[in-house]
Write a structure and sequence with these properties.
With 353 residues, this protein is α+β, with helices and mostly antiparallel strands. It contains 14 helices and 8 strands. The protein has helices spanning 31-46, 60-74, 77-94, 104-116, 121-140, 165-174, 180-189, 193-198, 236-247, 281-290, 299-311, 316-323, 328-331, 335-346; strands at residues 2-7, 10-17, 20-27, 204-205, 210-216, 226-233, 248-250, 257-259. The chain has a 3-stranded antiparallel beta sheet with strand order 1-2-3, covered by helices on one side. Strands 4-5-6 form a 3-stranded antiparallel beta sheet, with no helix packed on it. A two-stranded antiparallel sheet has the order 7-8.
Length: 353
């Protein structure tokens, strides 16, 4: 990999790197000592501690554009939107520096700035994960020779919050006719809101009582590229509401229930013109407040679905499949619910004091 050269009583280690060569001075030592040092240098090259790459210069803004093109091609539309927003934050902070200038100190400065902006560690870590991926690709694309260390911030793990049976009843009673069917489906299937708004009538198998949740990459047109899916069985509650929605449509403005029109037969939950719905956050927050429940994120419905399954004896592997988690470690956040429920269950023994 390297050769030993002697010039004017000084030994040099010469590394070939494509068409170029890099000379590293060893010094005025014996040939035996020079060979030992040469082997040490070769070992450092193999572990990438010695920078020998001829990196290509690219400024950060241009690199960001290349990265986002990669994300658009290889990830989902929602992932692209999230990462584009984060990359915008990176550009504001790092400005248009040479990408090869990235180092640990720059990254630490970014973390400090985000902390000063009162951003939670968990959110900062999500940004850092994206930055880490960007730097990995920068190394692959030969824009940097070494990947700076991206150290995540500590995150205090909190018990998962979920709704009690009584809170679920209160919430459903305080939902508008437009919001209620969506809340019912999310509570009984555990699907994410992004999956709910993508749900189409063609994804429902009423004979088998199954919902096919498709995960699409590369395009917003889900009929063009399917890369992953999971199947969720429908209980009677979900089946009943989806059958009802085949013929009925709730106007989001007037809240009147009318017959569903032909152009509204693609997306189950759609705007009056048949297009995909946007955010339901405002309506959901109002319903939660009327129900006197503090949490205002629709994700609590997913937690409620999983937590009540755990409390009713469903194993975590099954819940992992229902939720679409790629790793069981993600599903393990519900393990404490199982432990607590088991502890309460043994207290119900008739001979317990």
């Amino acid at each position: 990999m390297a050769s030993l050269q002697l010039k004017k009583k000084t030994y040099w280690a010469v590394f070939a790197n494509g068409c170029s060569r890099k000379w590293i001075k060893i010094g005025n030592v014996t040939k035996t000592k020079a060979k030992i040092i040469l082997k040490q240098l070769e070992a450092e090259v193999s572990t990438e501690r010695l920078d020998l790459l001829n990196v290509r210069k690219i400024y950060f803004y241009e690199f960001c554009e290349k990265y986002l093109k990669y994300v658009r091609t290889n990830k989902s539309v929602n992932s692209y939107k999230r990462e584009a927003y984060t990359v915008k934050k990176f550009k504001e902070f790092f400005e248009n520096i040479l990408t090869l200038k990235f180092n640990n100190q720059l990254i630490e400065n970014y973390k400090l700035k985000r902390r000063q902006d009162s951003i939670q560690n968990k959110s900062i870590n999500r940004e850092l994960e994206i930055l880490r991926h960007m730097l990995i690709l920068a190394k692959e694309w030969m824009y940097i020779s070494k990947i700076p260390r991206v150290k995540l911030l500590p995150v205090r793990k909190k018990p998962v919050k979920f709704l009690s049976i009584e809170e679920v009843e209160r919430l459903l009673n305080n939902c508008t006719p437009w919001l209620k069917p969506m809340v019912i489906v999310m509570l009984n299937t555990g699907i994410r809101y992004t999956e709910l708004k993508n749900l189409k009538f063609k994804d429902i198998d009423f004979e088998k009582k199954e919902i096919i949740i498709m995960s699409s990459k590369n395009t917003s047109n889900r009929s063009e590229s399917f890369t992953d899916f999971r199947v969720i069985s429908m209980n009677n509650t979900v089946t009943e509401i989806l059958v009802w929605l085949i013929n009925n449509y709730v106007d989001p403005t007037t809240l009147n229930i009318v017959l569903r029109k032909p152009h509204q037969m693609i997306h189950i939950f759609c705007k009056p013109d048949g297009s995909q719905i946007g955010s339901i956050r405002t309506s959901f927050v109002k319903a939660m407040r009327r129900s006197q429940i503090e949490n205002t994120d629709t994700y609590i419905l997913r937690h409620t679905f999983a937590s009540h399954l755990v409390m009713n004896g469903v194993d975590l592997v099954t819940i992992q499949k229902l939720l679409g988690h790629s790793s069981i470690s993600t599903t393990m956040i519900y393990a404490h619910v199982s432990d607590t429920h088991k502890a309460e269950s043994v207290k119900k023994l008739p001979w317990d004091k």
